[in-house]
Amino acid sequence: MKIQFFSCLFLLSLTCFANGTDPSPEPDWGFFGHRRINRLAVFALPPELIPFYKQNIEYITEHAVDPDKRRYASRHEGPRHFIDLDQYGKAPFPDLPRGWNEALARYTDVFVVDLQGDTIKIIGEGVTRYENQRLIGLDNNRTINNKGISWKDYQSFYNENIFPQYYEESWQIAPDSLAKLLGTALPCRSVFAEDRLSEHGVLPYNLLHMQRRLTEAFYTRNVAAILRLSAEIGHYIGDAHVPLHTTKNYNGQLTDQIGIHAFWESRIPELFADKAYDNFVGVAEYISNPQDYYWKMVLASNSLVDSVLLIEKRLKQTLRPDEQFCFEERLGVTIRTQCTAFAQAYQEAMRGMVETRWRASIQAVSNAWYSAWIDAGKPDLRKLSFKPDEKELEEIKALEAGLKKGKIQGREHDN
């Protein structure tokens, strides 16, 4: 793992420790970007909201990193931080539905275990007419692949029988319900489904879900939920502004550029964000269509992927190895990381891309908070105060305990 500007924890791909010791699970200088973005977003809020958020700015700042910590406790957390858009063809990725339920239904495979114990995929990628006929003897006009079953009927079947099991370890389906969909008897031992969407990330879907949850928290005036969700949606919005959170080549592992993820989103901002970036953005604006807003956000990030990779590769070809990597002291440990001059040259070659995405993150986080408040009816927040209750404190302890165990759930180098 790596400590990275938006979501990664430890800079291990870029660092080798001179004394051979392991780093602590959560160095104090980690999580820099998430915390800073949330903190700066407070100052972009309008007068109606800024007093509440300033009063709780330390909570908003500190808990910006909770989603990363949760990746050590839940296998469902990792996919919320990224989306491998190039898994779905070329931009604007028309085969990838923008709605959550429809996308899950589109990228879920359904399998049948027949009476002989063979497992046969009946719905999903690569299914042929032969497999459907072999299993249930359907004629050519009734197979899923021949569109004998309408998408509307299948979506209803999915929503009723599969979607409620999303957080379960396995997705089991009653054979009778599938037989009803197919309109024929289904001799088999069992039926189950497998998700092909989540392994490639669900970031924009998660952003819309978080926006709705934050709106509900404002509507019910649940101050603990308002603060927690505000902090966490800020984290995911930060992730969505990083180009390498939108590609399968998320750490340059496919192009011999291992470590570029942390270089772009951690090393550069840590060196220059406070000293050189303009961290004050415009006043928060209302998001009229959150689904479109969040999809445009990740598509914009994805459009920059080629530049991120090509510019770094070309720059490396002009520099000696000792001009690229230097040794620094961090928390009493000597580490190997990109030289300041190399980082400066990369940043300049990208023509301010990192700063532009950094500023856009600040603005977007503020927009999300403001829009949720508007959509909730502009509740009066002046009388709301927050003090962590016992449940909140226990959840915080659980996150810390999971982090210290050091075993991430999902991708080893997650986005």
How would you summarize the topology of this molecule?
Layout: H1 32-42, H2 50-55, H3 57-62, H4 66-70, H5 100-106, E1 108-113, E2 119-123, H6 129-136, H7 151-161, E3 171-173, H8 175-182, E4 190-195, H9 203-220, H10 223-240, H11 260-276, H12 290-302, H13 305-316, H14 321-324, E5 325-330, E6 333-338, H15 340-349, H16 353-375, H17 390-405
Antiparallel strand pairs: 1-2, 1-4, 3-4, 5-6
Helix pairs in contact: 1-10, 1-16, 9-10, 9-12, 9-16, 10-16, 11-15
Characterization of this structure:
There is one protein chain. The protein is an alpha+beta fold and 415 residues long. Helix content is 47%, strand content 8%. It contains 17 helices and 6 strands. The strands form 2 sheets. The chain has a 4-stranded antiparallel beta sheet. The protein is globular and about 70 Å long.
Quick rundown:
The chain is an alpha+beta fold. 47% of the residues lie in helices and 8% in strands.
Strand content: 5-15%
Q: Sketch the topology as an H/E string, one letter per element.
A: HHHHHEEHHEHEHHHHHHEEHHH
Cα-atom radius of gyration: 24 Å
Shape, per Cα inertia axes: globular
- Arrangement of strands in the largest sheet: 2-1-4-3
- The assigned structural class equals alpha+beta
Return the average pLDDT rounded to an integer.
85
Task: Tell me the major beta sheet.
Answer: 4 strands, antiparallel
Q: How many angstroms separate the termini? A: 10 Å
How many helical stretches? Answer: 17
Uncertain ranges: 1-30, 136-147
The helix content, as a percent range, equals: 40-55%
Number of strands: 6
